[in-house]
Design the sequence.
């Protein structure tokens, strides 16, 4: 599928919670190689990632989540954790857009106010 994306598509939209370790990097590499082989600039293919999980409910929960380094599942932790993990993916894997799974207004508000501005800063640094 990633080879088809590289040859023809405008973007790739996997879900973080469904990716095996290393799959994001491998998928992006396959997209880039297929794009080059097809005479396309790999940068023409947007890299979008669905992210899901919960913000930490309290200080103890946040402390537990701060030790979590698993980037192949749902995110759980304070806003800083929600910036750190996707920020690494933006820098390392070229993810340029994050889609937040949620229908909870407070969760979406926190993501928009506390996470997105920090991710934009990180993305601007690559």
Sequence:
């Amino acid at each position: 599928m990633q080879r088809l994306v590289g040859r023809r598509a405008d973007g790739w939209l996997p879900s973080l919670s469904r990716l095996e370790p290393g799959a994001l990097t491998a998928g992006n590499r396959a997209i880039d190689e297929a794009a080059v082989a097809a005479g396309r600039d790999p940068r023409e293919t947007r890299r979008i990632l669905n992210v899901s999980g919960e913000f930490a409910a309290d200080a103890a929960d946040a402390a537990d989540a701060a030790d979590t380094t698993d980037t192949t599942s749902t995110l759980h932790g304070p806003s800083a954790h929600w910036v750190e993990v996707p920020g690494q993916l933006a820098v390392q894997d070229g993810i340029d857009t994050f889609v937040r799974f949620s229908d909870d207004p407070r969760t979406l508000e926190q993501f928009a106010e506390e996470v997105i501005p920090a991710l934009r800063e990180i993305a601007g640094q690559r």
